[in-house]
């Protein structure tokens, strides 16, 4: 399993803002400090804003800051907010019929592994990172 760049950058975005929660930080400043692509970070910021994890203010003195309840969100919430909540393997996706399902010996292993991973990500609050 690979964590996507979108998730990795989303975590970096939130952790950067957590250094000074009251201060508005411009996207350009953040992209430069984190050495991340400005446009891609903008897409991530929009997703996190829509999910209520960050607040944004437009204009000359605008920027982003953490919302009040950001720390109560989990790493799993972040992954979902960024649209990256993909299944561990294709056969676990909703509506997917596997032609090898009958007699499959590994699907239960994938289900347990995915559940364990999701449980850990749901348990891990952003404020604890």
What features would you highlight for this structure?
single chain; 129 residues; mainly alpha; Arc Repressor Mutant, subunit A; two-stranded antiparallel ribbon
Could you explain the architecture of this structure?
The chain is mainly α and 129 residues long. It has one domain (5-128): Arc Repressor Mutant, subunit A. The chain contains five helices and two strands. A two-stranded antiparallel sheet has the order 1-2. A hairpin with a 5-residue loop joins strand 1 and strand 2 (63-66). Helix 1 (5-17) crosses helix 3 and helix 2 packs across helix 3. The longest helix is centred in the last third of the chain and has 17 residues, at 107-123. It is elongated. The chain starts with a helix and ends in a 6-residue tail after the last helix.
């Amino acid at each position: 399993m690979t964590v996507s760049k979108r998730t990795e950058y989303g975590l970096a975005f939130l952790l950067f803002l957590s250094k000074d929660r009251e201060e508005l930080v411009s996207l350009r400043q953040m992209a430069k400090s984190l050495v991340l692509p400005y446009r891609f970070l903008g897409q991530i910021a929009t997703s996190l804003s829509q999910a209520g994890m960050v607040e944004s203010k437009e204009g000359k003195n605008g920027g982003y800051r953490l919302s009040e309840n950001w720390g109560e969100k989990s790493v799993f919430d972040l992954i979902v907010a960024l649209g990256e909540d993909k299944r561990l393997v294709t056969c676990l996706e909703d509506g997917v019929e596997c032609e090898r399902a009958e007699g499959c010996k590994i699907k239960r292993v994938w289900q347990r592994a995915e559940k364990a991973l999701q449980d850990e990500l749901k348990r891990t609050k952003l404020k604890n990172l």
